[in-house]
Amino acid sequence: MKDTQSFDHRPDPELGAALRAALEPTGAHAAFVARVMGQYERALERGTIPTLDVLASWFRPGIAAAVAALILGFLFGRGILTPTATSIDAAMAPSEGPGLAALVTAADPPDASVVFASLVEQR
Amino acid sequence: MGNSPEDKDLVAQTLAGDRDAFGVLVDRYAAQARRVARAVLGDPDDADDAAQDGFLSALVKLAQYDARRPFGPWLMRIVANAATDRRRRRNVRRAEPLDPSLVGGGPRPDAVAIRSELGERLRTALGELPERRRTAVVLFDVEGYSHAEIAGILGIPEGTVRSEVFHARRRLRTLLEDWKEQVK
Predict the structure, then answer these.
(1) Taking the domains of chain B in order of start, what are their residue ranges?
(2) Which CATH number fits domain B1-93: 1.10.3720.10, 3.40.50.2000, 3.90.550.10, 1.10.1740.10?
(3) What is the pLDDT of residues B140-171, one digit of tens each?
(4) Do B44 and A26 lie within an 8 Å CB cutoff?
């Protein structure tokens, strides 16, 4: 037993042993372990405890989504930043079908779908 | 630890779905977890419930465990928190006052009864200490954790741990000395 007024950086074996005896669990060790393992099995069945496999299965879609977002972002950014070769000459250049020239010189207004189709062809 | 697998390996195996590895961890730390929970709660049944909560909570958080650090303090922090949560939820009854017959004067009991009496006195004395103080002294003198580790477990500065252990020891050592005088 150490002096009650002094401060010691080491554990006190006598006090430790007495406290250990006082706090010793009342139930059997094996029964407690079995009880915890039973709860563990039930938690696994309910899926409330993630294993590495589960965490990995969460991880994979996340990675795929991130890669897809990166690719889309890259393509979108490239499309905005790259100047398209559009000019009046290019727009008026003949292509298969009626083309813009035919459309702008026609007497009647064209159908909207024709206009969009023509624009897509020009690109 | 000899040839027995290291904690960090058991943790990795548990995360990979090895149930036996978790069983080894529970077996290894069950007694310690139950004692620490009992230091917080007092009641042994409540303590076992809290220790179980702690193990299952640790499982859920197992992927967050840093394998470069010792597993024991990490687990004990979770167990101590589980015990504190349980105490708050259930408003566990406070330690009952000492039976006057135990304080002195009664018939001299046999050796087993004497040990039992000491245990009862210590539990009562622990119950009268603030929760943080009794947990700190149990982690230090019973479980052998360092002040720095206890600081991590309890989430308090190391200097505060030293102070808590000092004050708890002063009370408990006095009690122990008185008891030794009585049974002489």
Answers:
(1) 1-93, 98-184
(2) 1.10.1740.10
(3) 999 999 999 999 999 999 999 999 999 999 99
(4) yes
**Is A19 in contact with B138 (Cβ distance < 8 A)?**
yes
ipTM: 0.81
Q: How far apart are CA B76 and CA B65, in angstroms?
A: 13
Q: Which residues contact A2 (CB under 8 A, 6 or more apart)?
A: A8, A12, B169, B173
Structure pTM?
A: 0.67
Predicted confidence (pLDDT) per residue in A55-101, tens digit:
554 455 555 666 677 777 777 777 666 655 555 565 555 555 555 55
B20-35 core/surface letters (b: 16 or more CB in 10 A; e: else): ebbbbbbebbbbbbbb
Nearest neighbour of A51 by CB, restricted to B16, B31, B119? B16
State whether residue B140 sits within 8 Å of chain A by CB.
yes
**Locus of tokens 């949560």:** B85
Residues of A in contact with B30 (CB under 8 A): 29, 32-33, 36
pLDDT single digits (tens) B90-140: 764 444 444 444 444 444 556 666 667 889 999 999 999 999 999 999 999
Same fold, B1-93 and B98-184: no
